[in-house]
Amino acid sequence: MDADLGDGLSLYDLVAADVxxxxxxxxxxxxxxxxxxxxxxxxxxxxxxxxxxxGAGTTWAEAATAAGASDPHALGERxxxxxxxxxxxxxxRVEQRRA
Length: 99
Prior knowledge:
Order of helices and strands: EEHHHH
Number of helices: 4
Strand order of the largest sheet: 1-2
Strand content: 5-15%
């Protein structure tokens, strides 16, 4: 969960400390920002994020391997970039609403 998504952002920034990603009912979380990021990912990409958050890999490629990717390096990097981009967009929207 503390893995860097870039710009000092981590999954901790998007999810409450007591959320269990593996056991969330219907994959809906209390934090709307996390839900928005996860909605932006397809099922395979979400499996990589969950594997990464649960510590199934210390790198995105390892998480992609744990999620069953045939090309874990490419998928891991794509998911890392996409999650970072989606998280940045959520942060931008929050800041925009505050202004």
